[in-house]
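Structure in, sequence out. Go:
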């Protein structure tokens, strides 16, 4: 069974939380992070992306970058200030984007559960990104960015969370992007009740987003254990910051594709090869209405691609929309055998809309773009339960959790 524990969060005051809260480090590049943090000395991006205060072009993995992260974190702890919650709590965390609301629990997940696949994965991690986050975590001795987890819905947890939300929230603010964030402290007794439900009724947790953060937490725990002859398993380093949501509340957006060239083919040759496997129909709406179909922007117009083959006969991985596109167009026609490393393809989160795809193609940065139907939570669970790995860039979750509301020290 899964373990999800109360902890003494390091957190800002309600008066400062809006200034400190920041998007995750891995959804913005250095330039975008610098713009978001401009004029705000308390932005948590100065901790998660410390290079924004350094000379352009600095090696992101250099000693000085991690030293700057540590210095900025210490400064933030004093300036904000950040202080540890006197009481070990779970924290209800509500995010509202437009009409969509999702309500999760911030708490301490177990590195041992991650190692034993009680926390299930669906994505491969890259060693260089693991190295980066593991060093960041160990330098700060703090898990500053939450891992985004999901679990199959529990009526008991829903009821306990609803009781907590009858009280006034500890945090309540609207970020610059319009997303509303609220957080409640569950209190010692309610936290223990909720934690017990996880331990008795929730067999698995699933990583929705944050595979590299989770992997780095596991590595940090192993390193601390190896250097502690008196290790008991109860030390804070054995746990990491996570926010867990019931699956029914989560919103996965499409993860669209734009290819930069036609792999040496003429436009007519490319279209002929596509038509070998797909029926191509002109459309006005560039968003697929159902899974197993794609919208293609090519030659300044949109078309619907409908497979001529039986999708139902494919395996659990092969029938994913991203797999169908990869296996039947991207690899065999456009020569993109490894989208994880190819420089000839760009991935665009669905939050940017199909207008971004048109813009890329119309300005010559791409030649053909594909609008995808979103992966479902059911597909994610099925693949994780089967011990399989999704193709890269299969899911885009919105709204994004914020760094800095609560962090986990060890």
């Amino acid at each position: 069974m899964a373990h999800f524990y109360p902890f003494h969060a390091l957190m800002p005051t309600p008066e400062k939380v809006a200034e400190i809260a920041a998007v995750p480090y891995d959804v913005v590049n250095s330039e975008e992070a610098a713009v978001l943090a401009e004029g705000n000395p308390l932005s948590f991006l100065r901790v998660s992306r410390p290079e924004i205060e350094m000379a352009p072009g600095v090696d992101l993995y250099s000693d000085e970058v991690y030293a700057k992260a540590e210095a900025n974190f210490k400064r933030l702890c004093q300036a904000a200030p950040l202080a540890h919650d006197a009481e070990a709590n779970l924290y209800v965390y509500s995010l509202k984007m437009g009409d969509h609301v999702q309500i999760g629990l911030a708490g301490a997940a177990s590195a041992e559960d991650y190692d034993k696949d009680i926390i299930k994965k669906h994505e491969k991690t890259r060693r260089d990104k693991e190295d980066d986050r593991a060093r960041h975590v160990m330098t700060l001795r703090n898990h500053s960015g939450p891992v985004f987890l999901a679990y199959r819905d529990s009526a008991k947890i829903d009821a306990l969370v609803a009781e907590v939300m009858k009280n006034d929230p500890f945090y309540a603010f609207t970020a610059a992007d319009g997303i509303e964030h609220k957080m409640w402290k569950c209190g010692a007794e309610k936290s223990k009740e909720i934690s017990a439900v996880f331990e008795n009724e929730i067999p698995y947790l699933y990583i929705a987003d944050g595979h590299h953060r989770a992997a780095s937490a596991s590595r940090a725990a192993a390193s601390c254990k190896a250097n502690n002859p008196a290790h008991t398993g109860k030390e804070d380093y054995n746990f990491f910051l996570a926010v867990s949501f019931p699956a029914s509340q989560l919103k996965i957006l499409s993860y669209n594709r734009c290819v930069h060239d036609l792999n040496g083919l003429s436009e007519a040759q490319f279209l002929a090869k596509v038509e070998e496997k797909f029926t191509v129909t002109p459309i006005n709406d560039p968003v697929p209405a159902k899974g197993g179909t794609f919208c293609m922007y090519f030659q300044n117009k949109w078309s619907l691609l409908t497979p001529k083959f039986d999708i139902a006969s494919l395996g659990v991985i092969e029938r994913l929309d991203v797999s169908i596109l990869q296996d039947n167009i991207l690899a065999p026609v456009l020569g993109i055998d490894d989208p994880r490393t190819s420089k000839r393809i760009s991935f665009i989160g669905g939050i940017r809309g199909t207008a971004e795809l048109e813009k890329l193609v119309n300005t010559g940065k791409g030649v053909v773009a594909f609008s995808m139907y979103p992966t479902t939570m059911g597909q994610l669970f099925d693949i994780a339960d089967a011990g399989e790995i999704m193709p890269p860039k299969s899911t885009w979750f919105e709204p994004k959790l914020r760094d800095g509301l609560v962090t986990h020290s060890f």
